[in-house]
Specification:
Layout (H helix, E strand, L loop, with lengths): L1 E10 L3 E7 L14 H8 L3 E7 L13 E6 L1 H29 L3 H25 L9 E5 L2
Antiparallel strand pairs: 1-2, 1-4, 2-3, 4-5
Length: 146
């Protein structure tokens, strides 16, 4: 389970809104000095707001600005990452292959690849929109921090 500490910014009947600071893994990476991602991560440290279900706990047990720990299963992160990055690329490569086989012009293979990439992105977006209510994909409230 990947855990993160956050601060409660709103309390609802069945959930909490938790503010977290997005962090980069660059602090642990040995190539951080020669990587452009580390530079971008310094500018991207903005708060993220996450809606976390109380899972039957009473909202009065928590108060605003209280530090809480939330977590999400590692398998959810891995599967989501693979789906977001690999599925559109796989569809793009298939579309390029089909475009090359059907048309002799390289331009049509390029257009097919762009269409495949766009279609893959739309399918991924639709999948995540459909599974937004799936509780197994949502972060869970572990408890008070500290």
């Amino acid at each position: 389970m990947i855990t993160e500490t956050g601060r409660i910014v709103a309390i609802e009947d069945e959930s909490l809104w938790v503010q977290t600071i997005r962090k980069s893994a660059c602090a642990q990476c040995s190539a951080r000095k020669g990587c452009g991602q580390a530079v971008l991560a310094q500018f991207g440290r903005e708060p993220g707001y996450i809606n976390v279900s109380l899972n039957g706990q009473h909202p009065s047990d928590y108060q605003l600005d209280q530090a809480v720990e939330i977590g999400i299963a590692e398998q959810v992160i891995v599967k989501s990452t693979l789906l977001i990055y690999l599925f559109p690329l796989l569809l793009m490569m298939i579309a390029i292959g089909l475009g090359s086989a059907m048309f002799e012009a390289e331009f049509m293979a390029l257009i097919s690849g762009i269409a495949g990439l766009g279609l893959g992105a739309l399918i991924v977006r639709a999948f995540f929109a459909k599974s937004a209510g799936n509780q197994s994909l949502q972060p869970i409230l572990i408890g008070r921090a500290g």
